[in-house]
# Entry
Amino acid sequence: MRIDSIELSWFRGAALNAEIPAGGKSCVVYGDNGSGKSSFVDGFEYLLCNGKIAHLSVEYADTKQKNCVRNTVTPDDIVSQTIVRFVGGNEVSCKIPNDGSVRFSSTPAPFKQELQTWKRESHILRQDEVAEFVKQTKSQKYKSLRVLLGLQKYEDVYNNFDGLEKFLLEKSNLEALKQKRGWIKEELDKNVKLYTKTDVVQALQEKTSQYNIEYKNIVASASESSEKVSKMIEDIEPGILLHNSLKKIRENKLIEEIRKFLEVKTKAKERLDELTENRLRLLEQAQEYIESHKEVEISVCPVCGAPVDKDKLSTHLEEELEILKDFKESSEKIRAQKRNVARTIEELNSIARDRVLIDWLEDNKDIKQLILEITSFELNIDFGWDIESIRTLSKIKNELNSCLEPYVKEEPPKTAALQTDLLFFNSAYRIIEYESLIDHIKKIEKLQEILQIVKSNIRKKINAITEITLEKITKEIQALWVIIHEDEPIEEIKLVKSDRDQALDIHLKFYGKDQESPILHLSEGYRNSLGLCVFLALAKQEPVDHPLILDDIVSSLDRAHRAFIVDVLKTELADRQVFILTHDTEWFNELNIRLEHKYWNFFKLRKWESPETGIIVDKAKFDWDEIITFLPEDTNAAGNATRTVMHHELDKIAELLKVRHPFVRGSKNEEIGPVKHMEAIIAQSQNKYRINIDGKWQSYTDPLDTWTDAYQLLNSWSNRGSHTGTITDREVERMVKRCQESLEYFICPTCCKPVWMLDKGTDYKRCDCGKLRWKL
Amino acid sequence: MRDFEFNLSEIIEESVSGKEDYSGVSFIHGKLDELNSKLTPAQLKSIVDELLDDMFKGEPDED
# Structure
């Protein structure tokens, strides 16, 4: 399942047909920032994730993200497309026309579905995702890895049982049933005091027999008994009510109130008599006084009219006031007591009008007559209060009381016991529902308990699988870490399960001490490196023929550690197809030098000019055998390929041999081509390039003619479009030959290793045997 | 990494082992294939409806 090519057409940064022709090999793609490297990753991810590109989903959540994958200047009638072809003929593509539709297709047809079972997270790693895992919380780490660790399907099963428990409680109305059970229990507590059907049946049998009812079953017998007891209570209750009414009439306070009235009335009469006598005496005294004191000035009392000495008038008036106050008070007492008597008569009248008494009084006419005599006694608060009438009223009440005596003497039968039995019968049948509810609730609770045990056992299983899986992944991580960070103080990196469920963490040793979090001790570079190791360890769990795409993943690593990444590629990932995308020239050249071209292809993306021009991919490496096949028919292709090879190779050689160029301002430094490199190498080789002949170092001048010829021909090729430069087909053939020979002059004729093979201190590079050397 | 032993039937057997025969467990046994794959809430609710029917079918509510 190796990728043969990734081709984009008006997709993301690409215009017409941008292709990485991997041919099943691993690839290194170099390009400046913005040259379109990630568009190829997007194209692959779009197909892998059925129209989703993760890093775009924050801004573009529309269906299949169709609003952001088409090149912004794509003509309306042009269809954007991404195609991934695999070695062996399988391919998946997606066409995105301007009409908003998205059409996936694949060869063979089911292959798209198979491809989309691949997990993005273990096939694609982008620069901003490298350290993401390391920085996550423990539960986020678990969430990130559970799919990759193959735990998701077990989590799905756990979630199913969790859902079963939740919906069991919801759909069975367990809480409502428990509440109802509580209410019935309260009723049984109050009226039955028995809690099993057996006990209730036994009690029912006993009680029904007391009422001469034959026991049939709980519902029928309780119902029959309830009916009978209700009837009994109904029969008894009117007698009780009548008794109570008669008792109330008898206990009516009329006689007592009349007695009180007579008392205050008598007392008031005494006061009135006293007042009258007092007035008479005053009149007599006044007459005598007037006779004997004709010459003395006297006054007349305004109250009683009696003559009073002026100096005694004040005292006299006070006495008069006291007498009148007392009199007034007596008068009020009489009126109050009159009201009390009237109220007691009204009360008696009210009882006598009660429905319970009416029928009974019809049968007891003498009593009815007495009541009528009392209640018809017309009393006005100011009139009709002569003492004799009032005393008669008292006598009638006395007579009434005597008549009632025999009826109230004997208490009617009590109904309390009957009421208790009635409540028992009315509630007894609830035992059936109560027992049924208990059984129902018990079944649900037991099943809930089982579901919880199953969940707990599933979780234990998941935890066990997690630990085994983590152990395996940890071994991979450690193997990768040791390659990149040999002899460094951070060691024994472990992915471990946290104490709580669904949580993971990374443990490590930092200067020999166990640390439970990598965040505290790891620099950004180490975090990236660790994140990369975790990704690669997980990616290695995927089938070996699945490709890996690493997009700018070494940005924060220093040169030494990048070199170790090459070792990882050559050892741990040697059997996999890897796509490395980078904007770093040094890293690209190092990969170019150290990775075997038999297994790796190298591409360079040109600087991205505009949406119309799009992405342009140049092959950074042609085999000379391949270039020669272009000749003699296609000298143009042969010339271009030669220049590309020379550009690439001389870039690499110039860097390794530290070939100096005159300073050029700004980005033109990046644009030094093979002609400039050749020119500088020819100029500097005379002082720097040495060959050891018979133990003596001499300037190595043999390459100069070939290099000079190659330089001139390359220069002509570069200027062939201008009015000053022309190059014939024969010259192109010679250029191919000279360029091939020029590169061979960097290889030692004895040991066949390049002159940059070994460092001799910081001064020289040399071949393996030491015959050639280049002064740095 | 994908071949770990995860037998749901065995997990359920282990969970009810040594306990009285619970109502509903045999029904769940019959749904193992479904429960072994990812189910939506609607599917789970439907299973619970069936489960409750199965648990309480024909249950007398009179003595």
